[in-house]
Design a protein that fits this description.
The protein is of the alpha/beta class. It has twelve helices and ten strands. Strands 1-2-4-5-6-7-8-9 form an eight-stranded mixed β-barrel, surrounded by six helices. Strand 8, helix 11 and strand 9 form a beta-alpha-beta unit. Helix 3 packs parallel to helix 5. The longest helix has about 35 residues. It is globular and about 65 Å long. The mean pLDDT is about 90. The chain binds ligand C2E and magnesium ion (3 copies). This is EAL domain-containing protein. It comes from Azonexus hydrophilus.
């Protein structure tokens, strides 16, 4: 009977939800432990770096730092997953602080390895932007490694930028006044009003990779990319394309006028040692 079936469905979903909640809780506990286990010598977290290529001269102009977590029991946990859990369980602040320290330590290391003129982009999440002390932390970490604000870039997603407009604007203004480049990440996937974005002190838009994926076959995606590049340029912003995997995509996005390209076509995100090797052997390719 329908009523029984309804109850069975309910039990089915309830048990599935318990399973998911249990898994989530296990991961939250593991994440808490992982954060507590960080020492100067050892961390279950690490950073990978992905190059960003300037279209005009074919050179690597920057790197994006991307967090990785290896847990002894859970294995490699994808960042999309553990960042969300950190956000939901109040663990994003310590994790985000670690990312800043580790990024700046690496910028110093890259410099000592003879690599110059590289800006490193750090992703910051909604919880981090809620902390008014964030600019002070960033200033302190930069000073500690004898770096300048020009060495750093901050990425916030379009949806993060839409939360808490007043506080977001106040914090972003401080970063921008310091001279830090600001980028809107995953652009096109949120629902930001252009009227609001216009007031943010941002310098770059990162076109989400979902639009890049089928750019050569899907006329709508191509139109979105083209319109976004035009819009961004009209607002005086630099356009970065994410998720460039093929030469055809590279060519297409170059023709649309994208300024900077990032994606597996050039390189996957790599551990520091490997990115240093990559950069040492990189040959600029001009269009
Ligand atoms: P994101 O900031 O948009 O980073 C780009 C993601 O796209 C990375 O995934 C990168 O590995 C992937 N990617 C780059 N090029 C290509 C490509 O050509 N093809 C495909 N299929 N993928 C490509 P990843 O490293 O798994 O990170 C996922 C997301 O997790 C990031 O998206 C970011 O939102 C978040 N995340 C990672 N590290 C951090 C962090 O330190 N802090 C914060 N707040 N978020 C982070
Ligand atoms: Mg990003
Ligand atoms: Mg992105
Ligand atoms: Mg993303």
């Amino acid at each position: 009977h329908a009523k029984d079936r309804g109850r069975n469905n309910y039990q089915f979903y309830a048990s599935r939800m318990n399973e998911a909640a249990g898994e989530r809780l296990q991961m939250e506990n593991a994440l808490r432990q992982a954060l507590a286990s960080i020492t100067p010598e050892h961390s279950p977290f690490s950073l990978h770096f992905q190059p960003q290529i300037n279209v005009a001269d074919g050179r690597v102009v920057g790197l994006e730092a991307l967090a990785r977590w290896h847990d002894p029991v859970l294995g490699q946990v994808p960042p999309d997953r553990f960042i969300r859990i950190a956000e939901d369980s109040g663990l994003m602040q310590p994790l985000g602080d670690w990312v800043f320290w580790e990024t700046c330590r690496h910028i110093r290391r890259f410099r000592e390895a003879g690599l110059s003129g590289l800006r490193v982009a750090v992703n910051i999440s909604a919880q981090q932007l809620r902390h008014e002390a964030l600019p002070m932390l960033v200033r302190g970490v930069l000073a500690c490694y004898d770096l300048t604000p020009q060495d750093l870039e901050l990425e916030i997603t379009e949806s993060t930028a839409m939360q808490n407009p007043d506080l977001t604007l106040a914090i972003l203004n401080q970063f921008s006044d310091m001279g830090i480049v600001l980028a809107i990440d995953d652009f096109g996937t949120g629902y930001s009003s252009l009227a609001y974005l216009k007031h943010l002190p941002i310098h770059r838009l990162k076109l989400d990779r979902s639009f890049v994926k089928d750019i050569e076959t899907d006329a709508n995606d191509a139109a979105i990319c083209s319109a976004t590049v035009a819009l961004g340029h009209n607002l005086g912003l630099e356009l970065v394309a994410e998720g460039v995997e093929t030469d055809i995509q590279r060519e297409f996005l170059t023709r649309l006028g994208c300024d900077v390209l990032q994606g597996f076509f050039y390189s996957k995100p790599l551990p520091a040692d490997q990115i240093i090797e990559y950069l040492r052997h990189f040959q600029p390719v001009t269009p």
